[in-house]
Fold:
Amino acid sequence: MASIDIQNVKKAYGHVQVLHDIDLQIRDGEFVVLVGPSGCGKSTLLRMIAGLEGVTGGEMRIDGKRVNELHPKDRDIAMVFQSYALYPHMNVAGNMSYSLKLRKIAKEKIAAAVASAASKLGLDPLLDRRPKALSGGQRQRVAMGRAIVRQPKAFLFDEPLSNLDARLREQMRAEIKKMHGDLKATSIYVTHDQIEAMTLADRIVAMHGGVVQQVGAPLELYDRPANLFVAGFIGSPGMNFLEATYSGGSVTLKDGTVVALPVPLALADGAKVTVGIRPEHVVMGGEGTGMAASVDLVEPTGFGIILHLSLHGLAFKVFTLDRAALSAGPNVHVSFPAQHLHVFDEKGDRCAVASA
Amino acid sequence: MTMTADVYDRRQDRRPWQKRLADASEPYLYSAPALILIIVVMLVPLVVGISYAFRDIQLLNPFSGGFIGLEHFETLSKDKAFYVALKNTLWWTGASVFLQFTFGLILALLLDKPFVGRGLVQALVFLPWAVPSFLAGLNWAWLFNPVIGPIPHWLFDLGLMSQPGNILSDPQYAMWGPIIANVWWGIPFFAITLLAALQSIPRDLYEAASIDGASWFQRFWSITLPFLAPTIAITVLLRTVWISNFADLIVVMTGGGPADRTQIVASYIFTQAFKALDFGYASAIALVLLVLLLAYSMLIILLRQTLLNKG
Structure:
């Protein structure tokens, strides 16, 4: 197991810079999830750590050793691909033992390593099957098995669950988390699915446009998003945003509603801000409380209900566990508890609390 | 129930006989164009050609044309030139297929890597395939000719030849002339098909293998080759049959000479038919070649089946 140090790493294809000065320290045994929309550079970063893409600038260290120029085969890392990339001409045991065979490890040791990985993943009855005779979930397990027999310095996962159906994805997610708990292996996991990121990560790295937006524990990103991008990306259904003006410790929404903030912010009076509130934090009340909004759409998810509202012409979502919302009339009233408001300045960054 | 209904229908069939005839022949009429085409284009010539093998047909002998049974085959079994041609065919086919395949594979592997101007190079590389075989033969015959071609002079300068002579008239090396021309002409076939197969291999398999610690050769051995194997099997089979039948280059470059040293069975057939004008004997040889190639094909197909069942 190893730590991974990424210092000022850049990546450019010709004149197009896709990664800008990435700085990231991954501790030994940590589970880090790179999350972001497609094209944000998360997969490129992962492939650079694996050695499948060259590093344009900066330095990459695995266990303190510079690996910029090192070939993938010499980095001692394992990777699980989205397509699984199983060798179709080898059976499951062959797929799992290939890397060990290349390292000229004794046959008995290989057999023992494969057997132990197979039993961990429940692959024992499938060892002499070819990949094409396996289901998607089984292939995924083989890909994981291929990675764990190696006992590599780090595991890299490139959207490993994207090709599975929802139920299997949930199951594998739990298994990956459990496996990480057992093996305590340094892992870097790329996904665009923020639920995977939230549930798996020790730390989440939110990326956008080749720039790291925020690094932190899942709940930190959820509770205190550093900017509009993170606020909108983490959480489902996504955060609602409203234009407002700040003055004297409270924000004034467009319709004139004034919400007093629990703490004053380091902003000048009259500053334009964006106020964000998560759908589950919006409070619905009766006539005369808060703002009036019309109901566009009601989505029962079984667990709760998502109401799509139109608030002064703005699309707005509310999530509630109260089934009474199902029979909500064409108009509802919503109000925003001040402690759940997120305030972002004109540049989209989270507003700092004014120092006392 | 249906039975009775059928019987009832038949008894009640009051359609006029023309209508019944038309209905009955309908499927045959639909398939007739294709069947007639196949029979006329493929089966008739085949049967006529085979029948020649059992008749005495010599263009210059107006009294020939009679049925002579197996006489041609008896002559053939004692024909020394035929056995020489058979041996030459093995050599010609083996060397040509092996070299075409080897160079074709190397070329395909090179063209699989992205580089500047790859599109243009690919187009150029496939050019020989578009050259008519007779033209290719003439070209190479001239290249080997010391009077107008440069190759003998180069070989002489390199010390590989004691004097700039014509390789095509050297009994020991004459076969290499047509083989080289054939290799030049046939590489693109292997390069095209193998390149297509190469490009269908998922890239992430190579990435997974290199992360697993495989060197270039190990990746080639455990990913590229297994993926190419079916294509290799089918192209080598095709080319083997094709090349052993392929007399154009030999007829143009050496005419089978010197002293039958480059005579393969296919060119021997050509010589018998169009030089000796003995169509009957030529057909008999062709029939033997057909049987040999069928046997070879069956063998390969059996081999493929066993391999597939094992795999």
Remarks:
- The two ends of chain B are 50 Å apart (CA to CA).
- Chain B touches chain A through 17 residues (CB under 8 Å).
